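Schema walk-through. Below, the input block comes first and the output block second. Nothing else is stored per chain. Lengths vary across the set, and this one has 259 residues.
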Amino acid sequence: MKYPYFPGCSLKGYAETLEKSALYVMEKLGVELQEMDEWNCCGVVYPMAEDDIARKLGAVRNMLRAKESGDKLVTACQMCYNTMKRVEMWMKDGGDGPERALKYLEDEELGEWGDGIEVVHLLELLKSVDMKPVRRTEMKVAPYYGCLLLRPKDVAIDDPEDPMLMEEILERAGFNPVFYPLRNECCGSYHVTAREDLVKERVREIVRSAKLAGAEVMATFCPLCHYNLRRYQDELPVYYFTELLAVALGSDEYMKEER
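--- output ---
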């Protein structure tokens, strides 16, 4: 299987470990993620104003480029997923806004929108591939969903109130997932820039919940969640989800030290 792949900005900088481990895992599982020849920032945050077309153009441009290689566009970053998925849905709703967006981009020779393209998060691919771990650690892992894979409900990849997808994949990979009530609560997100005290409080509550459930490590897909969870507590190591899977599939490169 081969899919066009959108890395996004964070995975080329702070979150490069997420990209490296994700590519390793998918290669081991027989899935080729082909990075787009040309891509731009997704916009990071979906604009709340319905008539804010300019801040949706980056995502539309990426989707038009990806259509040249397939009918799905895969990303590992949940911030990118949330933004582009919501723009995808906005485009498919039709109307004056999407028409104007395509009009703005028509001079770039990006091809036709047609039936559009489906934005897919890496977890959605992982749930359907055969996972045969070469190592089974039984490590107790607290998967952390955060907000952007589950909210708003229209773009959720699992039940927003009781997600199980990460737990199911971890179990198949030879880990022992733990269930804790705050796994789908917000870590504080961008409040870290202005309300650091709020983020500290949220992170400590989340980590305390995971630790009380018996967790030895935490795992996430979100670069911002990863940053906040690591910075504001020292009780549990925090890894990218694909780092754990990479170890289960035979890599010695990841999980060498607390992150």
